[in-house]
Design goal:
This protein is an alpha+beta fold. The protein has a single domain, classed as 2-Layer Sandwich (Alpha-Beta Plaits). Helices cover 37% and strands 39% of the residues. A 4-stranded antiparallel β-sheet has the order 2-3-1-4. A hairpin with a 2-residue loop joins β2 and β3. α1 packs antiparallel against α2. The longest helix is centred in the last third of the chain and has 15 residues.
């Protein structure tokens, strides 16, 4: 099982480290990552493997939103099934 994590906000030092640390804390493995800084804005998309996650998905979503609030960025976590359903005709 996989999920998509997006992060958007003003660039600052340590955003990737904060997100990756929380993922590691709950045994969420980062499969793929892309990030860019556009002017002063940070944008990141991660594909993560949640098959060995040690907390339930909803709690993980809440944790990541809290991390985003602490870093003044918006973090959104979407289960791959929902993501795929949104993009099928």
């Amino acid at each position: 099982m996989r999920a998509v994590i997006t992060v958007v906000g003003r660039d600052s030092i340590g955003i990737i480290a904060s997100v990756a640390s929380e993922c590691a804390k709950y045994s969420v493995n980062i499969s793929d990552i892309t990030q860019s800084v556009l002017d002063k804005y940070f944008v990141m998309i991660m594909i993560v493997d949640i098959s060995r996650m040690t907390i339930d998905f909803t709690s993980f979503v809440d944790v990541m939103e809290r991390v985003g609030n602490e870093r003044s960025v918006k973090i959104h976590v979407m289960h791959e099934d929902i993501f795929n359903s949104m993009h099928e005709i």
